[in-house]
Amino acid sequence: MAANVTTEVNNGFKHSFPGTYSGSTINSFAAGSVFVDMTLIFNKESAVPTESCVVQDKLQQLQDNQLLQDHKQQLQDH
Fold this sequence. Notes:
The chain is an alpha+beta fold. The chain has a two-stranded antiparallel sheet with strand order 1-2. The longest helix has 27 residues. It is globular.
């Protein structure tokens, strides 16, 4: 599971912050939960995005993914 989480997080952040995002490490999983404590690694401190920037970016990725899924479903329905 750790490898899957790391891969997905890395793919999303590398796409959003190319050239500045270096990777991530998992610090811990919460027992019986999907909560993951992670450290995100950027090339330098000045490259670290603000929390609100990351939240907006991830929300946009979720919306884009949902639109893509809706479009795929419409194509399959026809």
